């Protein structure tokens, strides 16, 4: 017989023995079910007569056992129903006709009672884990009439547990983590198993934990199920993950107990217990000298066996870079040290560098003290490259006078070959994007800058050009320098009035009154500043009307000499003034001041400068002029009211009910048969002939002497006469004078085309030199239109 069956059989016999010992008094001495007045339920009573009448003698009733529960073993599966217990009443004596009735939970389905004997049997196999107890009611009734003989009595049938459920880990499998290098006894996790058996009865639910797999690394506490570190120095870098199998066994772990298992996956988490380590102690790089600043020159890497933040390192240069030529940064993705240039390197100056680089962990464990680090040596060899020429100055400042002749040498720019040979020829050029007007030229061999066109300081004070230098053997090697050319001023502009002055002189002004303050401007910019001298032209020195006074601030005041100025006599005066500067040589110009004579108020406020009011007839006042204009308006209105009404009836006065049907669709401007709108105004003439005004008449007249004929033989005079004849005989035309408008466009012209679009087709050369005499703007226009023979061929 298997071990499982032997264990169940032993438990079954022990349970039966316990039930037998517990229930024998209940079975053999079950309560007596009956009633009697003055007695308690559960006993029998007998009545008897005493010696005297009316007396009752009470006798002590026989008392039965007090009971309330029975037991049945779970999972019993014998061939016959198992006897749970027996009910008995004191009424069941002799051949009394009674029967037992069972009601409540499971009555008739799970539990059955023998009506005659009161035996209760379990009809099915019971499971305590599904239902641990049943509450039922027993009663004795008359077998024939089913009349209750005693009150019902309630009792409980308990299902007695056996060890039929193994422990279970409801939360498994488990995953846990613990830092590497943890001390022995460090808790990892706690596992918990449950047993469905009765924890009160026996040891069926008493669990004990043990490890089946995972020694010697881990241990488990037998009663609590806590998993702990059992081995010192567990290193994640050697082994990161462990699988632990834990068993829970009931019956206190003794033989015959049931068991269940679960797994715990334990992961060792990383701590920073490994320093960074360079893969090589010496790195060598070759860097060309023309490597741009900020570009990478090489890579180094220190490996760290740790992971995550514990493996990250920073790099630094601790020796060999006194001049600060290099820098090293950390690539966050690859954890490499990127060596970059901070300053340009020069093969001709220094050809090798030796650096000492250090890698340091970003994080450090408190127990380890100082952070982990490692060092390596980096040797850098500078490689010679073909470099572009280098100007001695990045910016050149040159000066030239604005009156300098063409081909004047302004200055020289010079570049050298920085290569070790240093003997490569160089060529110089001007970047024409910075000299669109081609004001300057440069000698390609020696870098001398010369003037190509005349300069004007008043137009452009500064000219900023870019000069390039290239090697003859390698045109890709180009360097640039900025040349700022300042145009120095010379006195080549005469001073002139600051604005076009127009002075106003009051008729009632006083002698010596200031008419106008005049100042001058000069386009030149002398170092010592401007000083202007004003004087009247020689022929005006002794004029009787005006004089000038110097204000000592480069301005003058124009004064009146008398107070007899009248508009009727002369309303406008012109005063020419000569202005001279203090340049070398001095420049002067003559400017004319216009002075108008005006009528002013007593306070000197100008009111009118118009002289026309003084040429009106003396006898005609302003009031008479207004009356005269009013009479003209009245006369005009009267004539309009007496005019004859036109024969054409206006739309709002036409009360006739005439319907004019017109449903003909015209053909546009070319349709000469369209309906004439004049029929709508004269319905009586619908059937009559109405001549058209928009086409040439059919009548042709021979031209007479003295008449004018247009192109193609059309007689214009005759055409007009025909139109006049039609207007005179038109019944719809007004009887008074009217305007007849006709349009006729001729063809051709004796003068020919006046368009400038055909100028280019002319074979004759045109001379635009006269435009140069009209000023600087027209001079530029003349240059644009003047096309030389070489340009024309191009």
TrEMBL record:
One short Pfam family name for this protein?
Cadherin
Keyword Nuclease among record annotations: no
What is the annotated localization of this protein? Cell junction, Adherens junction; Cell membrane
Q: Is Cell membrane among the key words of this record?
A: yes
Q: Which GO terms describe its biological process?
A: adherens junction organization; calcium-dependent cell-cell adhesion via plasma membrane cell adhesion molecules; cell migration; cell morphogenesis; cell-cell adhesion mediated by cadherin; cell-cell junction assembly; homophilic cell adhesion via plasma membrane adhesion molecules; morphogenesis of an epithelium
Name the GO cellular-component terms. adherens junction; axon terminus; catenin complex; synaptic cleft
Per UniProt, residues of the Cadherin domain are 89-169, 170-278, 279-391, 392-497, 497-619
Keywords attached to this Swiss-Prot or TrEMBL record, sorted alphabetically, are: Calcium, Cell adhesion, Cell junction, Cell membrane, Glycoprotein, Membrane, Metal-binding, Repeat, Signal, Transmembrane, Transmembrane helix
Q: What is its main location?
A: other
The way this protein sits in the membrane is described as:
Single-pass type I membrane protein
Query: Which InterPro entries does this chain map to?
Result: Cadherin, Cadherin-like_dom, Cadherin-like_sf, Cadherin_CS, Cadherin_Y-type_LIR, Catenin-bd_sf
The record lists the membrane-crossing segments as 12-34, 614-639
* Gene Ontology MF terms in the entry: beta-catenin binding; cadherin binding; calcium ion binding
Q: Which domain of life is it from?
A: Eukaryota
What is the role of the protein in this entry?
Answer: Cadherins are calcium-dependent cell adhesion proteins.
Q: Which PANTHER family match?
A: CADHERIN-23, CADHERIN-8
- Name of the protein in its database record: Cadherin 8
């Amino acid at each position: 017989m298997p071990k499982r069956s032997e264990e169940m059989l032993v438990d079954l016999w022990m349970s039966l023995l316990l039930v037998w010992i517990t229930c024998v008094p209940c079975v053999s001495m079950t309560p007596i079910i009956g009633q009697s007045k003055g007695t308690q339920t559960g006993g029998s009573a007998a009545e008897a007569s005493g010696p005297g009448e009316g007396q009752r003698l009470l006798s002590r009733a026989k008392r039965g056992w007090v009971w309330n529960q029975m037991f049945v073993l779970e999972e019993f599966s014998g061939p016959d129903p198992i006897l749970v217990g027996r009910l008995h009443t004191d009424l069941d004596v002799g051949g009394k006709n009674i029967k037992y009735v069972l009601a409540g939970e499971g009555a008739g389905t799970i539990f059955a009672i023998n009506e005659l004997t009161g035996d209760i049997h379990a009809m099915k196999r019971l499971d305590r884990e599904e239902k641990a107890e049943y509450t039922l009611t027993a009663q004795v009734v008359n077998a024939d009439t089913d009349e209750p003989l005693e009150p019902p009595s309630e009792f409980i049938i308990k299902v007695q547990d056996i060890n039929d459920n193994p422990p279970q880990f409801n939360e498994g499998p488990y995953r846990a983590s613990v830092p590497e290098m943890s001390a022995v006894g460090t808790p990892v996790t706690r596992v918990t198993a449950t047993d469905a058996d009765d924890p009160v009865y026996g040891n069926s639910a008493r669990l004990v934990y043990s490890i089946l797999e995972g020694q010697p690394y881990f241990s488990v506490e037998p009663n609590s199920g806590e998993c702990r570190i059992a081995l010192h120095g567990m290193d994640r870098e050697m082994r990161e993950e462990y699988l632990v199998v834990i068993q829970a066994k009931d019956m206190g772990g003794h033989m015959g107990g049931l068991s269940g298992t679960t797994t715990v996956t334990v992961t060792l988490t990383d701590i920073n217990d490994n320093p960074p380590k360079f893969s090589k102690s010496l790195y060598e790089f070759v860097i060309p000298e023309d490597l741009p600043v900020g570009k990478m020159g090489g890579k180094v890497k220190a490996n760290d066996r740790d992971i995550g933040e514990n493996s990250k390192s920073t790099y630094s240069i601790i020796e060999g870079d006194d001049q600060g030529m290099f820098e090293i940064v950390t690539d966050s993705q690859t954890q490499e040290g990127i060596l970059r240039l901070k300053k340009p390197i020069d093969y001709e100056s220094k050809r090798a560098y030796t650096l000492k680089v250090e890698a340091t962990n970003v994080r450090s464990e408190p127990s380890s003290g100082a952070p982990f680090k490692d060092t390596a040596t980096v040797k850098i060899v500078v490689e010679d490259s073909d470099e572009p020429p280098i100007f001695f100055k990045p910016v050149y400042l040159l000066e030239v006078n604005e009156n300098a002749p063409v081909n004047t040498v302004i200055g020289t720019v010079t570049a050298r070959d920085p290569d070790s040979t240093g003997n490569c020829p160089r060529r110089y050029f001007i970047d024409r994007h910075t000299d669109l007007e081609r004001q300057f030229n440069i000698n390609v061999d020696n870098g001398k800058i010369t003037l190509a066109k005349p300069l004007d300081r008043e137009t452009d004070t500064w000219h900023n050009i870019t000069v390039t230098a290239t090697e003859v053997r390698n045109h890709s090697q180009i360097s640039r320098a900025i040349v700022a050319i300042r145009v120095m001023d010379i006195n080549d502009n005469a001073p002139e009035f600051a604005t076009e002055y127009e002075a106003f002189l009051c008729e009632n002004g006083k002698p010596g009154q200031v008419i106008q303050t005049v100042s001058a401007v000069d386009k030149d910019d002398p170092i010592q500043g401007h000083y202007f001298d004003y004087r009247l032209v020689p022929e005006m020195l002794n004029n009787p009307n005006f004089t000038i006074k110097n204000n000592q601030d480069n301005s003058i005041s124009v004064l009146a000499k008398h107070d007899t100025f009248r508009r009727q006599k002369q309303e406008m005066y012109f005063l020419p003034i000569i202005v001279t500067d203090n340049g070398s040589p001095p420049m002067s110009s003559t400017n004319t001041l216009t002075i108008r004579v005006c009528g002013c108020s007593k306070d000197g406020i100008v009111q009118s400068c118009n002289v026309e009011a003084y040429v009106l007839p003396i006898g005609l006042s302003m009031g008479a002029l207004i009356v005269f204009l009013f009479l003209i308006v009245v006369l005009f209105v009267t004539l309009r009211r007496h005019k004859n009404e036109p024969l054409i009836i206006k739309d709002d006065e036409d009360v006739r009910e005439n319907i004019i049907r017109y449903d003909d669709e015209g053909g546009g401007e070319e349709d000469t048969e369209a309906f004439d709108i004049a029929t709508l105004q004269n319905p009586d003439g619908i059937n009559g002939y109405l001549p058209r005004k928009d086409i040439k008449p059919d009548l042709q007249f021979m031209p007479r002497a003295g008449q004018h004929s247009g192109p193609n033989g059309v007689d214009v005079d005759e055409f007009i006469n025909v139109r006049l004849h039609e207007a005179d005989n038109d019944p719809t035309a007004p009887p008074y004078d009217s305007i007849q408008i006709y349009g006729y466009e001729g063809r051709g012209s004796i003068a020919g085309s006046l368009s400038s679009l055909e100028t280019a087709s002319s074979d004759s050369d045109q001379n635009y030199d006269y435009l140069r005499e009209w000023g600087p703007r027209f001079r530029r226009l003349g240059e644009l239109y003047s096309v030389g023979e070489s340009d024309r061929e191009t």
